UniProtKB/TrEMBL annotation:
Gene Ontology molecular function terms on file: ligase activity
InterPro entries: 2H_phosphoesterase_YjcG-like, Cyclic_Pdiesterase
Domain of life of the source: Bacteria
The protein's name in its UniProt record: 2'-5' RNA ligase family protein
Keyword Ligase included in the entry's annotation: yes
UniProt entry tagged with the keyword Transmembrane: no
Keywords: Ligase
A UniProt-annotated Pfam family: 2_5_RNA_ligase2
Residues in coiled coil: none
Amino acid sequence: MGTVTIGVSIAVPEPHGSELQQLRAGFGDAAAHGIPTHVTLLPPTEVDSGDLPAVEGHLTEVAAAGRPFPMRLAGTGTFRPLSPVVFVQVATGAEGCALLQQQVRDASGPLARELQFPYHPHVTVAHGIDDAAMDRAYEELADYEAEWICTGFALYEQGADGVWRKLREYAFGGAVVPPQAGAPLERGGLTAY
């Protein structure tokens, strides 16, 4: 059967996703057009292709228990010198992302795995490029902001060409409640607004 490399992430919606992808390409990141703009929940993970139905079933359960939550990107950060990455920070929604990624990687599920680094939700805008371009990305996006309501996540597969393609979207169970409706409610492990 063979193996496939998959990832699970929250897509940054339009127009923000395309805008950040174009900026990433403009900084000289050759991988920009092969990686949809996202917040990672499960980093690239190799699985047996025969395990995909179990993975999809698990993700369906995680999504069914989830509730929409607000996301806001604001400002930049970097993992340098540990890792050559510049990113836009998740200013609102980081707790929801962290809980969601724990559920995706739950020890009892088919995607259980340890992470190389502690989980830190972010949107990569430069990776593995020269330091001057990394500095430019960090400075030019320092005032960047975007916000939306996260209503689910998606499963992606990396092709032999290195391009990530969406296999399936998973919507959270429950209706979107506007943020102005009041204080957050805790349901199903994620904050609902």
